[in-house]
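dumping this here so i dont lose it
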């Protein structure tokens, strides 16, 4: 597979749009953009990819999305953004191409619940919060930063996820060992929370629940692919039995042609997450196959 197009940056011109061609503005390592790209691939929708340097964006990008976030879809003057909305939109405009969203209202409602738990809120604000925590932990030390977060948002759903994310980041940066992580998670009761999340996803991942990947798999995959790449799903003893189901789901997903079409090696995600939001963000330098 050829590496994708280079990421356009400040000063770069908008590639000319062509009538009838669907375009996705993307970023190679963005989990949200992955959602749109997975749907495009799984439904076999012809499209072109324009990669955007999300750290130093081209000036014209604000006209595509006032929030200046990828993914964005554009075709014949119609623009749609927000990853879950783009995915639903693709299903709506191409209902007959490999339908991926269940028709049964109950199934749709269950999917929406799982996505609400695991795909929407906590992924949506993950990046800025991790940044904030990292900045804090640099200035005041890991323990102080995590203590402050505990006090600020003790009962917050997002906080628990972000704490977990923060520790992953610190592990990646070699600032904390897995043993320290485990004790920190237990102390802050994040570990229990994390297990509950895993159980919820497991209900969905169980083979009897679904026979082939659909909308929800593609919405969840980018989150869990990154957790997996960071090694945090293999954290020591105490891993719930349900993890086995989760791992079986991973293995199934890894063989899915749409997942393969966007997947990078674990090392590429790790490398990217180390550098994201630094002046040296490596959008094009990290070796990938797509
Ligand atoms: N809620 C958005 C989040 C998209 C998002 O955060 N994309 C990141 C890249 S992973 C981005 O474009 N960041 C640019 C920025 O923060 O300025 C969605 O689901 O599409």
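and the seq i came up w/
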């Amino acid at each position: 597979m050829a590496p994708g197009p280079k990421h356009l940056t400040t000063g770069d011109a908008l590639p000319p749009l062509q009538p009838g061609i669907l375009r996705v503005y993307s970023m190679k390592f963005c989990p949200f953009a992955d959602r749109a790209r997975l749907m495009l691939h799984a439904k076999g929708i012809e499209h072109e990819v324009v990669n955007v340097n999300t750290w130093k964006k081209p000036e014209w990008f604000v006209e595509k999305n006032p929030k200046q976030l990828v993914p964005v879809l554009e075709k014949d003057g119609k623009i749609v953004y927000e990853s879950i909305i783009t995915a639903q939109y693709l299903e709506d405009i191409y209902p007959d191409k490999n339908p991926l969203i269940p028709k049964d209202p109950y199934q749709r409602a269950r999917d929406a619940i799982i996505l609400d738990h695991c795909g929407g809120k906590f992924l949506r604000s993950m990046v800025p919060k991790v940044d904030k925590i990292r900045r804090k932990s640099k200035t005041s030390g890991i323990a102080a930063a995590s203590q402050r977060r505990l006090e600020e948002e003790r009962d917050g759903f997002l906080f628990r996820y972000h704490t977990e994310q923060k520790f992953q980041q610190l592990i990646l940066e070699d600032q904390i060992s897995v043993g320290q992580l485990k004790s920190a998670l237990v102390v802050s009761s994040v570990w229990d929370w994390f297990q509950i999340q895993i159980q919820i996803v497991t209900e969905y991942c169980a083979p009897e629940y679904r026979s082939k990947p659909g909308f929800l798999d593609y919405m969840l995959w980018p989150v869990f692919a990154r957790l997996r790449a960071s090694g945090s799903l293999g954290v020591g003893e105490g891993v719930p039995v349900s993890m086995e189901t989760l791992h079986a789901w991973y293995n199934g997903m890894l063989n899915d042609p749409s997942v393969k079409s966007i997947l990078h090696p674990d090392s590429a995600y790790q490398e990217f997450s180390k550098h994201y939001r630094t002046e040296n963000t490596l959008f094009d330098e990290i070796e990938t196959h797509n």
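The mean pLDDT is 73.
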